[in-house]
Amino acid sequence: MEKMMKRPLSKRQQEMLTYIKNFMQTNNYPPTVRDIQNGCQISSTSVVDYNLQILQREGHLARKRDVSRGLELLGEAASHSLRNLVNVPILGNIAAGEPLALQGTGPWNNEDFDNVDIPPFLTKNKENVFGLRVKGESMIDALVGDGDLVLLEPITKPNNGDMVAAWLEDREEATLKHFYLEGNKVRLVPANSMMQPITVSASNVAVKGRVVGVMRTM
What we know:
The protein is of the alpha+beta class. It has two domains: 11-81, Arc Repressor Mutant, subunit A, CATH 1.10.10; 86-215, Umud Fragment, subunit A. Helices cover 20% and strands 32% of the residues. It starts with 10 loop residues before the first helix and ends with a strand. The model is unreliable at 101-105 (pLDDT under 50).
């Protein structure tokens, strides 16, 4: 039996499929029906639902209707959305609160971590980017929360105001804070009005990386 050819997509369906691809590349999770309605400027969620059914029928996506974000790209759409992804190693945890004490053989509070594939724009096309999982809420006002993944470029000389992973040499502890060099002192400032800055000798701080992107948990 001859394989049935896919029907051409309408302009609206093409726009919806493109929106879904871009949304997933940006957020690392699928959009809701309401997201698609707003993003594509569609009159109602029922129109979105109708066109999602067509995209599903034509093999462009799979859908779990009982799940709010139950869309999954299939076939060429999925392949296109995964092109040029950057593989980033996740090295461990970083404290956003009280610094985490050293465990193991590295500067990070280490667990069993792996790698993650992410869109290049999240790394701002920096080289040798690595990831750390945030523990704590000292950076919550900078939209970095507990469980989020921060992406860092490895640098040792940040600019004032940069969000950095700072290693406190004498305490063998690492922390995620905004960096300010003030004479022979470094002030590590949280983005949480309930928490106080940490001020230490500049010789006691080793900056391991500057945050270039964040992947947020839901």
